[in-house]
Amino acid sequence: MKKRSYYAVFLSIVLAAGCSHQETMPELTDRVFNVASAQYKSMDERLAPDSLPKTYYADGKIANSNIRWWGSGFYPGSLWYIYEYTGDETVKQLAEKNTLKLAPLQYKGTDHDLGFQMNCSFGNAYRLTGDAKYLEPLERSARILAKRYSPVTGVIRSWDFVRKGRDWKYPVIIDNMMNLELLNYAGELFGNDSLKEVAINHANTTMCNHFRPDFTTYHLVDYDPEDGHVRSRETVQGFSDDSAWARGQAWALYGYTMMFRYSGLECYLNQAENIAEMLLGRLPDDGIPYWDFDSDQIPNDLKDASAAAIMASAFVDLSSLTNKSENRDKYLAMAEKQLRTLASDEYLAAVGENGNFILKHSVGSRPDNSEIDVPLTYADYYFLEALLKYKKTCDTQPK
Ligand code: GLY
Predict the structure, then answer these.
(1) pTM (whole model) above 0.85
(2) Which CATH number is correct for 32-393, 3.30.2000.30, 1.10.3720.10, 3.40.50.1010, 1.50.10.10?
(3) Atom from ligand 1 closest to the CA of residue 178
């Protein structure tokens, strides 16, 4: 080889080594929170005193919600996470303002979503500030949520309405597992064991009735309120009654991981690890699920960033709860993969775009043709939560 060629080979090796620097997770987290902070500060400017963001459409149309929408707690919750990471007092003020918008909900008992709404907003507010003004709404809403529990069915009723064409008497959706966190948190804060008991009973009944032998979950189980027997197993937002709707699987993974974190009961850890194993075997290479694992359009179908973000948060938690070191590494590796994909240009918005939401490409309800391939506040919320948890896990783990 001539001298020139040696030089060319040497140069290309040096360049390749220089260019292959992979962004570290702390660098990635910093970058995402900078975007999140800029986006969410701007978002507040267009909100009326009683409205919260919902989504944004490609034609530039922005959809806001009133406080009763199930996802109303996610915007204040994300502001709390941004404050937690940045310590920015302006963001704290926005978080407080948007949390207090939800105060009237503490008297609402018309569906199960009170857990999502109040825990993400008031729960984070109290966790981060310790300000006693957040306590009463948390206690009151937890008590109201627990009133939706029936000892006959052994579960909290999700909805009071019946959808057109359905014949529900006591519908319970897998999403409801997430509302148990409010009961657990309030149970601990106020020393109220009956709230924790309702959470445990609901989780136990759901474990018996919602899951298939392969640990995928149905979306909805309808119960007979008179004797508690299961009347039907269906989907509302998934591809078919027998399919694995991606966000439902994410709620299940998160729900049982969270139940183990609060209760220490091994059966929940086993359930979460079985769900995790199923997901690890089925998730695509980039870690972002299609909106339903069983859609007949895969691989030419839409991905759901919200399901990936919820899973990432749960995988990080599960990695620090599992007793098996090989599982800890697998869960953390999947969370990292999901977070890296979500933080890529494909999913992460540029500042000033995407209606000021953080992530692109989520799916609300495909069968209803509602919120298709759009940003959603809950995708943003669980993405930020997962990054914070990832940071804490890595900061505390022995190197
Ligand atoms: N909890 C409603 C949803 O996941 O779409």
Answers:
(1) yes
(2) 1.50.10.10
(3) 1
